[in-house]
Design goal:
alpha/beta, Serine Threonine Protein Phosphatase 5, Tetratricopeptide repeat, 23 helices, 7 strands, binds flavin-adenine dinucleotide, binds iron/sulfur cluster
């Protein structure tokens, strides 16, 4: 009896649930590069190269552990170019009668997997889909902070008995500093592509050359060993300042003090618990402050698990939610970066070069602009899924539809993350070199974020006006005299007409 174990591109973990569930002697691991996944939608070139290279290296690592691996390369002439097609072909090749896979991170694939055979829960996440659904059941509000505290107790991370280390659950009040002058931002490790990666880079150039994004220089970690080097480097060189400058943005500094580990965690080369434990150990050793470690661990056992839970309880139609009725098409500068708004141009440039942008660029620049300008959430979500190396539906959709665009009407966030130019000016150095004047609301050269912000509030008053967290903002709007309100709305309309 042969069992086929399909291993997907984001399941590159040696302790994957399916590998623990069968006898190695009976199993053939199937890994396949298919156009059906890499080519539609047209993912960033670097994202495809990263995943294909990591898959090829992972196949070698599995073989070294004694697994039989059947690897179907993209240019294999027999390749059916779909995962379902490859499972069928593998079953026939190996005369297999069972298929055991681990649940994928999107509704579309999970449905397909059920037709292949058994589907196991993905125990690389710290809570199962069923556990999160139970937690959410009957709650009026799904507060991340409540979930996070439970996760601290469940994992024991930063706990003294049943109390949080340092007497507080959350040290965010110590974070959110604007960028200070003279800070040096240590770059993450760079890795010279080996022959496997070079072959993948050539393949991506040849087959996906018209996709968005820069492919070279390519210096990403693609093996478990390299991923561990990245983790150690983050803990040693950037974690100490992660908390303080978590929300800061600086032109030309693409990673700041962020870990830049998301793509490695999401594809399985790093485990969420080991990453948190490495950060906690640095606190225990006294080399990093508590606000940094708590803030970092919260992102992983809190936000990461929470958004995944939201994705699954929200159902397959989550991506099509659009409670604010936003319908404008995505402006072309999300692809080209050609805009005089320096904050947007910088965020798109980083995205294009690195297939990565840090959280505040994603939330307070790219998603904030789309929210204020009323861009169709489905188009925004499609863009975010394509451009980031860490993007998979389970994590991208809730972050975009829920957190970034409030298109789910508040299932995830208690108010929209909407901000005018003042926020971006406070947290970055972008405005100093921008063609627009961040201090101006109306008139020539006024920062578009300012009029768009007020226009957003005014045009969504029916929907948002009673949200108690926005009352102060609506008070602000009401204090403008009608002539100023009209000028602001005309300014916003004039700008939107140029998109
Ligand atoms: P750090 O700032 O170092 O944070 C540490 C880790 O915490 C991350 O590596 C990640 O694993 C986790 N994390 C932090 N915030 C979140 C969050 N909101 N949701 C899930 N995990 C989180 N993250 C993705 O992994 N994939 C996405 O497709 C994605 N799309 C996003 C879209 C929008 C509009 C927004 C606002 C956020 C998105 N995020 C996404 C969350 C977050 O921006 C990235 O995880 C983070 O920028 C990755 O960089 P980092 O590894 O340096 O993170
Ligand atoms: Fe962005 Fe406005 Fe600042 Fe320019 S002035 S960088 S558009 S916030």
């Amino acid at each position: 009896m042969t069992i086929i174990l399909p291993v997907l591109a984001d399941q590159l973990s040696l302790d994957l649930a399916s590998l623990k569930a069968v006898d190695r002697a009976d199993a053939v691991i199937l890994m396949a590069e298919v156009m059906g996944e890499a080519g539609a939608p047209k993912h960033h070139k670097t994202k495809i190269a990263f995943l294909f290279s990591a898959m090829r290296h992972h196949a070698d690592a599995l073989r070294e552990q004694g697994w039989r691996v059947d690897y179907v390369a993209l240019d294999d002439p027999e390749n059916s170019q779909s995962l379902g097609g490859e499972v069928d072909r593998a079953k026939a090749r190996h005369n297999a009668d069972r298929v055991v896979s681990v649940e994928a991170g999107c509704w579309r694939l999970i449905e397909a997997q059920r037709s292949w055979g058994e589907v196991l829960s993905d125990d690389r996440f710290l809570v199962s889909r069923a556990w999160f659904a139970d937690w959410a059941e009957g709650r009026k509000r799904l507060l991340m902070e409540d979930f996070y505290r439970l996760m601290r107790k469940r994992t024991g991370l930063l706990m003294d008995g049943d109390q949080p280390t340092g007497g507080q659950w959350n040290f965010d009040a110590d974070n959110r500093k604007p960028p200070a002058k003279g800070l040096v931002y240590p770059a993450p490790p760079q890795f010279q592509p080996d022959d496997t990666t070079e072959a993948v880079l050539a393949l991506v150039e040849a087959r996906f050359g018209d996709h968005f994004g820069d492919l070279r220089p390519f210096a990403r970690a693609v093996t478990r060993e390299q991923a561990l080097v990245c983790l150690a480097d983050f803990v040693e060189t950037r974690l100490a300042r992660f908390g303080d400058y978590q929300d800061a943005m600086v032109a030309g500094e693409d990673g700041m003090f962020h870990s830049q580990l998301s793509a490695l965690i999401n594809c399985g080369l790093l485990g969420p618990m080991e990453v948190c434990q490495a950060a906690e150990a640095a606190w225990t050793a006294g080399v990093v402050p508590l606000n940094a470690v708590e803030g970092f661990i919260r992102q992983i056992i809190g936000w990461r698990e929470y958004v995944r839970g939201i994705h699954w309880i929200a159902g397959p139609d989550y991506e099509s939610r659009n409670v604010l009725g936003a319908a404008r098409p995505l402006p072309s500068f999300y692809w080209t970066g050609e805009t005089e708004m320096r904050c947007m141009a910088e965020a798109v440039r980083a995205t294009k070069q690195n297939a990565h942008a840090h959280h505040i660029q994603r939330l307070m620049v790219l998603a904030n602009f789309a929210l204020l300008a009323g861009i169709d959430p489905a188009e925004v979500s499609a863009w975010f899924l394509i451009v980031y190396a860490d993007a998979y539906e389970w994590v991208e959709t809730p972050n975009v539809i829920g957190m970034g665009l409030f298109a789910d009407g508040g299932l995830m966030a208690s108010k929209p993350y909407a901000a005018g130019g003042a926020y971006i000016n406070r947290m970055s150095d972008y405005c100093r070199g921008c063609a627009y004047d961040v201090k101006k609301r109306t008139g020539e050269g006024a920062c578009p974020f300012n009029s768009l912000y007020w226009d957003f509030l005014a045009r969504n008053r029916d929907r948002l006006g009673r949200n108690h967290r926005l009352l102060r903002m609506y008070d602000g709007w009401d204090r403008f005299d009608p002539a100023e309100q009209a000028r602001i709305q005309a300014q916003a309309a004039g700008f939107l007409a140029t998109l």
